[in-house]
TrEMBL record:
Pfam families: Condensation
PANTHER family membership: FATTY ACID SYNTHASE, NONRIBOSOMAL PEPTIDE SYNTHETASE
Protein name per UniProt: Non-ribosomal peptide synthetase component F
InterPro entries: Condensation_dom
Span of domain Condensation: 6-109
Segments of this protein annotated with the region Disordered: 107-129
Compositional bias ranges of the Low complexity kind: 110-127
Amino acid sequence: METYTGALERFTVDAEVSRRLSTLSQSEGTTPFVTLLTTFQILLSRYTGQLDIAVAVPVLGRSRPDLDPLIGCFVNTLPVRVDLSGNPTFREALERVGDQTLDAFDHMDTSSTRSSGPSSPSATRATRPWCRCPSACSATA
């Protein structure tokens, strides 16, 4: 039975781990964000036993030049979905997540109701069928 009980987990990555994360990301031709997202999706897969994992990623919604002069906060939430079937290595999962992330950003102006597939009887405005796990990552000096 679903309880809709969640939690917020904040943590700080120390300088050495951050440096190693950047080095790995650079050597694989991706960004630290995609590397962290891959790690998070693998963790969710292991905890849930599911191989099809979607994570909601917040993005700035100013992808169109006509929005530039407008005042206000334009934020969108993109589902980044990855299929972890076939027991991929971390590098293979990293490539899959990178491809899915680029695809999500390419289609970020598509409405979530149009991109989530057929509507589900259990889907409401409060719960989208495509994702129930948000993620946020911020860099500080």
